[in-house]
Amino acid sequence: MQVMLRSLPSTRAGARPVRPARKMTPCLAASRSIPRATNEQKIDLLKKVECFIFDCDGVIWLGDKVIEGVPETLDMLRSMGKKVFFVTNNSTKSRAGYMSKFQSLGLDVKAEEIYSSSYAAAAYLESINFQKKVYVIGETGILEELDLKGIRHLGGPSDADKRVTLKSGEFMEHDHGVGAVVVGFDRYINYFKIQYATLCIRENPGCLFIATNRDAVTHLTDAQEWAGNGSMVGAIVGSTKREPIVVGKPSDFMLKNISATLGLRPDQICMVGDRLDTDIMFGKNGGLATSLVLSGVTTEEVLNSPDNKVIPDYVLSKLPDLLTVKESAMVAA
Ligand SMILES: O=C(CO)[C@H](O)[C@H](O)COP(=O)(O)O
Q1: Smallest Cα–Cα separation from 148: which of 199, 90, 95?
Q2: Which end of the chain has fewer beta carbons closer than 10 Å to its terminal beta carbon, N or C?
Q3: Is residue 118 within 8 Å of 94, Cβ to Cβ?
């Protein structure tokens, strides 16, 4: 089995050793073997594609650590005249927040090259001319993007410390002017927020239920996979028996919004991601070339499982694999 790329945290003298990253990988019997892209295929990909859309967690970074070789790969693509675009389902930051993260990791990225699911939520509400208030389960990224669109909101970080006691007679009031609940990743999710969102969706006529994404697990740190926003959306699906409108990958909304921004034909674009059910599905839905990297949540076992129906056009162990064809690709371009 292929050894996964992991940038393990360095161990300070005297510090507790850091455990290698563990994956919540289902046990699956592999019955086929989808090969890694050959050098010829990598050159072909670099020749035919004008723009690379990169997922972030698991492709560019793991938590707050940039994956080794990524800066050089981005430099190579830019020097070949390729457009690059970064799309993340992680809604904890706004596009401006991601700009700061890219800068802090030493990655030279322009503001207009970043698209986050926090922005997608605000853009979706704007697209339907939404005029009411939004209750947010999520972090500052969603609030900042709603503010930029002038959409009123409540909840989010300000409800982080609110508690429910369930003492006899306890009754929670809620705002009847809320017309949408947006659920994004929220490390401070609590029972108060779940109850508030549930009341809005169940009791406010026509209240929308919007999910930034439904990712199951993700590398929120480089040491381990963590429960993703799918767990938070699942809580609200459970209490309301409603299915959300998803605005992040692999939604149609995000695809159309990004295509309009890029102004390229689908065959000129390659989606590079570490997740089959969001990134690769997103690319396939849009008719883009797709490239799976095995540096994030997808193991070879899952990729090769007979249960997996999402087959990428190319498989790389990590994005910097493209550097192996740098010289030939530069000549061919
Ligand atoms: O639920 C999540 C946590 O918010 C997402 O899984 C996650 O962060 C995905 O990010 P990306 O699209 O960059 O892989």
Answers
A1: 95
A2: N
A3: yes
Can you tell me the ipTM of this complex?
A: 0.94
Sheet holding 153-155, edge to edge: 153-155, 133-137, 178-183, 208-211, 245-246
Pairwise CA distance, residues 309 & 313, whole Å = 13
Residue 87's pLDDT is 97
How long is the chain? 333
Per-residue model confidence as pLDDT tens digits over 22-62: 555 554 454 679 999 999 999 999 999 999 999 999 999 99
Q: What is the 3-state secondary structure (H, E, C) of 57-94?
A: ECCCEECCEECCCHHHHHHHHHHCCCEEEEEECCCCCC
Instruction: Read off the pTM.
Output: 0.86
- Backbone phi, then psi, for 233, in 5-degree steps? -65, -40
Q: 102 with 109: CB under 8 angstroms? A: yes
What's the token pair of residue 106?
A: 């030493």
Give catalytic status of residue 50 as yes or no. Answer: yes
Which residue ranges have their beta carbon within 6 Å of ligand 1? 55-58, 88-92, 185, 213, 215, 218, 228-229
Closest ligand 1 atom to Cα of 91: 4
d(CA 283, CA 268): 12
Low pLDDT (below 70) residues in the chain: 1-31, 331-333
What does the pLDDT look like over 247-277, one tens digit per residue?
999 999 998 889 888 989 999 999 999 999 9
For residue 185, which atom of ligand 1 is closest to its CA? 4
Choose one of 88, 218, 295 to mutate for the ligand 1 pocket test, by most ligand atoms within 8 angstroms of C-beta: 218
